[in-house]
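Margin note from the TA: students keep mixing up input and output lines. Inputs are the sequences; the output is the structure of the whole complex. Example:
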Amino acid sequence: MNWSVILGISKTHLLSRKKQSSIAALGVTFGIGTFITLASFMTGLNGLLDGLILNRTPHIHLYNEIAPSEQQPIDLAAEFAEGFNLIRSVKPKQSQVRLHNALPILGQLRDNPEVRGAIPQVQAQVFYLAGSIKLNGLVFGGDIMEEVRLFNMSDYIVEGDAQSLARNSNGIILGAGVADKMSLKVGDRIQISSVNGGLFPLKIVGLYQSGLADIDNVQSYVNLSTAQRILGEGKNYISDINVKLFDMELAPGMAKELARQFDLTAVDIKTANAQFEAGTDIRNLITYAVSVTLLIVAGFGIYNILNMMIYEKMNDIAILKATGFSGTDVKMIFISQAILIGTIGGALGLFIGYLLSKGIEQIPFETDALPTIKTMPVNHDPNFYIIGIVFALLATFFAGYLPASKAKKIDPVDIIRGQ
Amino acid sequence: MTQTSPYILEARGINKHFREPVDFHVLKDISFGIEKGEFVSIMGKSGCGKSTLLYILSTMDTDYEGELWLSDQLVSGQSNKALSVIRNQHIGFVFQFHYLLPEFSVIENVMLPARKLGIKSPRQIKLDAEEKLDLLDIGYLADQKASRISGGEKQRVAIARALINEPTIIMGDEPTGNLDSKNSENVFDILKQLSIEKHMSMLVVTHDLDFANKTDRIIEMADGRINGVPHPLHS
């Protein structure tokens, strides 16, 4: 097959009908451009919503649940095994909130290659004191730099920064709601009283805003040792361990194993956020459905225009065949036209899609829930561009294939005789 | 499959039926041959099957019974791809309606079959095409768009295109049917000159008796048969 001749003919065909060719190419451009824009924007939004929950939620959360024993002593007694045993008013067993052997567990978790990080945490019930007023509060003690690394903590620190807490053993990152109520700002001091009655003056090194008022009015962050001091406990007192894995999908299996191995409660992210997963799936489904529809519409546009073009070129087809071009040559002439349209239109579509998604990225989008987000989220995933151009080529190929096969079958004698 | 015969093009017992809308036996047992450098015209009334015969001889129509030989090579039964190569290389075609590609320039139209054949370099093809246009006195039209030139000029461009691959035979379907007498004479002179100088065979279907009378031999057709006139070799 003589490609330079075939491509030369398709080029002349396309260039001699500039308007028609550009409309066909613009159909592709529009389809691919909107696909890229839409996919970037919608997955950006999805990513944002996912991040809202997933970034802050540990993949596995280890703690001791206070719960009644599932097996009561009477169940173990052989003489009552046949009976119908009813025990009223079962109370939970006296047990510790702290995790037994927390430090060895942490050590083992950190050695596990699947684990991205494991953070010990201490939760302490406290009162924030302001003059004679006592506000209920919950203080989380932990490794703030690890929280930043694993749970994007820095996105939610609206004033001050995480480092100053790491440097200051008497520092606190106060919930924004608490700070508001008590008219406190970064650099001020706050008194905290523990449940046991101890008083701890702490320096405010930052403000924390999660966007959920219930949390911001109560929660604060301190260093692990500070929280242990507030509770009057030693260095090995740890109430929770938050684990982040490299692969979230491993969480359920691993949680089960950890719970069995260490005899504690392990909740994985899938169980904790089951309804959330469903939401994400549906949003993704909508994104794909809309994108595929756009691309199919673009494909039909190309099919239509090429079909018309072939009817207009009946005479040319007859001449080409009479002068020695084979049916396959003629078919290739039209397929190459379709693919040229697809390549040019698709490349332009990628460009337009990129510009549009860059544009969307400039639109202001401010919400209390996401203090660090100032503009619309956009996901510039190169995969969309690859999918876009591949689809443009595939769609134009198939849209061109049918009319081109028709052209291949056209009998030149019919056309010449028909004149 | 080869055999030696005096003919460049030979038809042996060709029969053709049109099956739509009703069965119609359009060509009945056609046998004849054309020698190298011979100028043959086919005449007959409308509907006698002369154009149909020409399409079969030109290999474009493959739906027939019988044998078609071109340069001692059996053409019948070959694949469409092989037939298009034969058309490209051995047959030049000139139609009643000029049938140039309107979007291409005159010289591109002429060059196209040679570029398809792909034997010569693009430079050589361009020189050849210019030579053919000059031969037909239309060298000055080379860069014009094919849609912008007059009917007589178009017909000459079509002849130049038919010549570009130095075919064995040129076939014409009423090549002068659409031209005035002056242009018509012109076209005849060109074809005649080619058959004498380049020893190309010519096979022309025509209504024009003046035109036909000037050719070496007239094949008359009526009702799908060749009337009388067997070839001089056989008589």
